[in-house]
Here is the input.
Amino acid sequence: MKIAVNTIFLQKDHLEGYGYFVQEIFCRLAKKYPEHEFIFIFDRPFDQKFIFSSNVKPVIVTPTARHALSFKYWYDVKLPMALRSIKPDVLIQPYGFCSLTTKVPQLLVLHDLAFKHFPEFIPKHHLYYYRAFTKKFLDKAKKIATVSEFSKNDMIQQYKIAPGKINVVFSAAKNIFQSIGISDQQKIKEKYSDGNEYFLFTGGIHPRKNLITLLKAFSLFKKWQRSNMKLLVAGRLAWQYDTVLEKLKTYKYRDDVVLLNYLPEDELANITASAYAMVFPSLFEGFGVPVIEAMQCAVPVITSNTSSLPEIAGSAALYADPNNADAIAKEMLQLYKDETLRSKLIEAGIQQARKFNWDRTADLFWQTITETIRN
Here is the structure.
């Protein structure tokens, strides 16, 4: 079997959500099924570390696809031209877009429909593209994979997709996210928070991640509970981040907020494992990987009571309305004051995180690939 995979998000030193998803699944599948050929299709020079085994063949199809016009040209003109010579049995499209012109059966991965619920947080040219083509992509795909039951039901409701066409494969956290010893935790605290305990937020500085509300909640927490607690923000400046940076200039507790920007994954894992708690009040998530990362690290979680987050975190987290800074702050205060509760959440989180792992996701994804070809 010849399996073509769109791998344009496998980029050295820029491996984020989509890229991690593809890497973790296909490094497993390529090694587990050596009798099959995997064609990795890049849109620029690639790093050899992404060629996971001898049955992976890289192909470069230019030009780079990074904005609406280039999406259309790459997916509907250049990619189909390349596929004519590759002749794959199936094409994996992991980033929510399909080619509308190829006859090769496509497996579309769509993590969520955030643009439907929060269009104001999407760049206009991307929003136009999503609105114009998402329904066409869903119809064109032979099979669809997504990362939560919430996202599956959202697609069914928004686009009237037949439930049997969508498989839930879930996502997961990398194995590097594990608990570390107290002495190692203290070294991290000395390096990043002046030796103090800290709440951690992981995610890009982007309106949907809801960092402004978290800052308001942190202010309330500091007002109610005078402590040396810090707030660490681990994530790159993604989009519409100016408001956050401007607010920090006049923020009363700005000396207690540490912006870490993009971090190597091993360092992020250590920072996560050293946190007092993860606070993740995102407005909308298809899965919410930082929640599972924290749980794997034996760190308690406070998160939103919306979208997929209650499904993913289960009974192992504290929940709050992400639009209510007071509610978030009360959960932070409760966790700070109640060590028994914190211990219970840590143990429950470890158990919850075991439900999600990349080996299971890869197996579910392989099943979806075979169904796509049979269909």
